[in-house]
Amino acid sequence: MKRPATRTFGILTSGGDCPGLNAAIRGVTKAAYWRYGMSIIGISHGYRGLIEGDARLLHPRDFDGILTRGGTILGTSREKPFKPDPGEKDSEAGSRKVEAIIENYHKLHLDCLVVLGGNGTHKTAYLLQQAGLNVIGLPKTIDNDIWGTDVTFGFHSAVDIATEAIDRLHSTAHAHNRVMVIEVMGHKAGWLALYAGIAGGGDIILIPEIPYDLAHIVHHLQTRQQRGKEFSIVVVAEGALSREESLMSKEERKKRRKKNRFPTKGYEVAHLIQEATGMETRVTVLGYLQRGGTPSPYDRLLATRFGTAAAELLYRGDYGKMVALRDGEVVAIPLGEVAEKLKTVPPDHPLIDTARAVGTCFGDGV
Amino acid sequence: MKRPATRTFGILTSGGDCPGLNAAIRGVTKAAYWRYGMSIIGISHGYRGLIEGDARLLHPRDFDGILTRGGTILGTSREKPFKPDPGEKDSEAGSRKVEAIIENYHKLHLDCLVVLGGNGTHKTAYLLQQAGLNVIGLPKTIDNDIWGTDVTFGFHSAVDIATEAIDRLHSTAHAHNRVMVIEVMGHKAGWLALYAGIAGGGDIILIPEIPYDLAHIVHHLQTRQQRGKEFSIVVVAEGALSREESLMSKEERKKRRKKNRFPTKGYEVAHLIQEATGMETRVTVLGYLQRGGTPSPYDRLLATRFGTAAAELLYRGDYGKMVALRDGEVVAIPLGEVAEKLKTVPPDHPLIDTARAVGTCFGDGV
Amino acid sequence: MKRPATRTFGILTSGGDCPGLNAAIRGVTKAAYWRYGMSIIGISHGYRGLIEGDARLLHPRDFDGILTRGGTILGTSREKPFKPDPGEKDSEAGSRKVEAIIENYHKLHLDCLVVLGGNGTHKTAYLLQQAGLNVIGLPKTIDNDIWGTDVTFGFHSAVDIATEAIDRLHSTAHAHNRVMVIEVMGHKAGWLALYAGIAGGGDIILIPEIPYDLAHIVHHLQTRQQRGKEFSIVVVAEGALSREESLMSKEERKKRRKKNRFPTKGYEVAHLIQEATGMETRVTVLGYLQRGGTPSPYDRLLATRFGTAAAELLYRGDYGKMVALRDGEVVAIPLGEVAEKLKTVPPDHPLIDTARAVGTCFGDGV
Amino acid sequence: MKRPATRTFGILTSGGDCPGLNAAIRGVTKAAYWRYGMSIIGISHGYRGLIEGDARLLHPRDFDGILTRGGTILGTSREKPFKPDPGEKDSEAGSRKVEAIIENYHKLHLDCLVVLGGNGTHKTAYLLQQAGLNVIGLPKTIDNDIWGTDVTFGFHSAVDIATEAIDRLHSTAHAHNRVMVIEVMGHKAGWLALYAGIAGGGDIILIPEIPYDLAHIVHHLQTRQQRGKEFSIVVVAEGALSREESLMSKEERKKRRKKNRFPTKGYEVAHLIQEATGMETRVTVLGYLQRGGTPSPYDRLLATRFGTAAAELLYRGDYGKMVALRDGEVVAIPLGEVAEKLKTVPPDHPLIDTARAVGTCFGDGV
Is B150 a catalytic residue? Predict the structure, then answer.
């Protein structure tokens, strides 16, 4: 393999942190340095670091031992450079930030910018590409909702954590004859609730893609009771919607929520179940625990695979792409195809039928 | 060893479930059956089962494979037979329940009742003993707040779970430069927060026994920032009190809390920190996750030890006692010494100085 | 959905146990009973139970709580009914056993036999099908070497366990500046070594499919040393072969092994490395630890999916098939296509290039 | 608190690595630096680093994030400076090394040397103290065999790992109706086998302190079989001895072992059981897995406690001591009391009776 004239790339992580970021960083940088002889510029705290010029030359030894570590050694932020800051009238600040990014990109003599992030990150990546920069994206998120890839790294680690939590609640539910409601992440996509719900043996799974009726939930719990199962586990995605809510506009939903006192969806579901059935019901919100800790072996493998594939794209100068997994193969898809889309659970996804077959209820009366 | 005329004992688990209950049940029953030839009556769902006569003869094979399981195969409840039900004017119901217990105790031909539980359970046990029953208690609780024993089973499993949660939050805190507040159980005793806080490397630990001032917390966070530590972990016992609150009556505190909108103490602390420091602050409430799952090896050992010691008390007819660990040895202490007391963290406990020595702040300005 | 005239199926687990067997049993039986109204006959200890008529009618409640449990509640054995017992001259015993199986199949009024197992199990299943029985297979094995499916359940749990072990060895290797050799399962297929090797950051991975030269291994270790890495992790599949061995006949290899004193391949590799490099080298054989314990969420999902798919095949009367995963979808493939084949790691598998890209050596000088 | 004139201490880790070393290092250094204003010299790879002068000034920030990490950031070695190297006629090399240590101790202007290690380390520490150096010791070892302290850090982490391994073997044992032998560390002391054996529900536990007879083991396994328990778990300390062996001299034992082909004690026990009972028996040697990985919360607490106590000894100039835990309190005991002693399991240790009470056999016919 003939080596190209030495290239330099910047690398940053953006959006919520998730397991596997460091493994992916390691994959990109090890392959890019040792295999292709490139130079690595590490950018701190996502796009914010690129705006502020917070960047430095790195050596593979800076990535020693990070394969197993949670978080991101580069730091991250939720900075969205194309979005005006709250309170600003127009996009002036936005353009100022984008200009700073472009300026720093050139000052740092980057041939390409490698970004690791979720939907927001890739939207920005696409806009930067249109603004003339070379960009390569890697799909990370515990939500698994990035369009174009079968799976994102971080997702399976979160599934592991949520499943372990459900396992723990099982013993408490059983000991006390209780309904235990567990709320997991997923505003618009129910992947995490679906996977962890099946893996944890959840009796009811509520996801944003399948609106639920309380009546069906109640019926399912009572049928279980009649069969001698005095406890139940209910797995709720934070963005789950009742049929009623699903017919409302976003504004109406917001208003309704303000009126109710439930901090989150899990609390609401727990309250309604207890009221309707008289069963003792408790709620657990998993929250930030889903993001942290060492990545699972699956995610280390996937992140390493994505990372080395990104290095190859760098080498080939094949910019403007996001690496993705499709049918077991790593491919590269144009950023333009990814931006502004969301991968939600299709109602006919085979896992939904799998779950129903073992007796799980989605609150929709099927 | 000469075997006594066969004895029969009832066994029940009462109060919140916690890891190690099954291990303790196994310890009592295996030793009582095989070593001492006793008969075992399993009572369902705590004192409620004894009131309702929900009990059956068990064989050691019913306890196969339970050493590692969370929860309790006997089921539990928070039934307090001596307490009138809400709405009842006097203790009529209470006496009715107690009478039912005494009646069933004799109907089942019990020589002794073995109860596994926390403070409430042992208070009831003491009252039953005074009412003429033979009772032996085993101290379980994740709070470690039972007077008379150095440690309860369930505690170290909860410490493990809470510490693992703190470990996970560390990576998120670090990646985002955030203050992560984690609320753990402990209404009146801060053992769990103290142990998990030190084991997890918490920067600030707030426990009921040491009233905190926000000013000291803020100062500590800012000092860390000046030393380049942009993130911090704050471990809060659910019953932590500010100095102000610590001077209030229980009623005043309740009123104050109603006025504020914070669902729990962790939320309040997080809100105040963010407001006072401007640092991005997030809260995680560990909740029921602390109760569930397989007991840690430490708790399996301790529960087995307590269980076999209880069997020996049964054999010797040494009733009216709770088994306990003191300076590494299992001893038996009179129920009367345990009831109505609470073991909280003494302000001069050596672990508090240990924590301070590695830089942990308790919010008290020391 | 119209229910068929009630069907009855037998279910057995055969071959080495692995995580996910119980989850798959639960999937088949729950779906078959509740969705399709079938009757379930549980057969003990694999084909041996069918030979001996060790079987009984089961109810879904017999499968309560088994989703998370390792092992198999049905028990297993390595009985191969078509193979004569050692010492027998011809296949008389074989035919006797097969006749007993056929007889018991009819005595139990089975409409189909569901077998959960690996390559040997499916070979037998195919022969039984040819002998006139209806059979459906589910692919389990930690080796992932069953032809026709992208992945088997049990594999990812074993990857998790092996990776965790490698993580542990890392700290010891680092503290002592040692070469740590870890031997994992895989006689003919190197999937487990490959996956765990990458996920654990192994520096050298030796698998049966890529013959190794000691010289390349030594060179790689010394290069690492020159870069300041004083320790290394070597992941060895138990069936790894040196280039020399790969050119020998099976008999020659056996003879050679007898002459050497190494209990297993890992010991040999460790010895040769220490001798050739002078580096302190230690070996760990993971052994049975790879089979046990609770299945990973991934395997619970996959096993549940395979189980419910098998129930659907039962319902449709679509016999003579093994359920399989291909490109993310569950399909059914004829037993005849599976039997006698083995799925090994193709030398051009993308993960091998991924591993090389992050600096892993396969001992082949590439 | 009045600060002393700034002191400087060197710190090293020696002997086999174990979980909690980094936590203890962090405890000493954080407390010594922030609380007492001392200077820290980190010495690489145990006493070898002190011989070679491999040392450097450290700052608390060098210890950031190490609380949870396995291994030791200082590196370790098994260097015993007072022992002549193999092949040397007299102790010339020994004295040369000791002289180098003394020379470097003064060159580095150390006021004290803090050593973290096991029995060998503390023996050396005592000799160095007698040679005029100030030394403070911290007891680490997974074997828990250091005289003078109730427990060492590293021990409970190893118990956790070994127990988890036993849990895994349980499912395999059960699925196959097998006897599973697991060998854990412990040449002279059986603490680890005893603790993990009870916590894991081992049916037979063999430790060096209680010589075993095969006949009793066989009897116990057969009794279990008669009660319908077709599988058993046998936990063997690597230094377990049969009654016959216990009566031999060390030389005789060595000779006998050479004659037999068993690589380790676990293999021998497994072989003899299978031969004597006809039960299928398998062996697992846990090996280096017991040393690695993140320390358990218990060990992090204990190591932190020992570390900060050592810092206080440094501050008080209270040299020549090892920190220790006695009846829950941290104390300091003279090195001279510790050296040359070994803490083994007393035959009347209460845990042995606990184990017997739940049906565990120690192979001694009690």
Answer: no
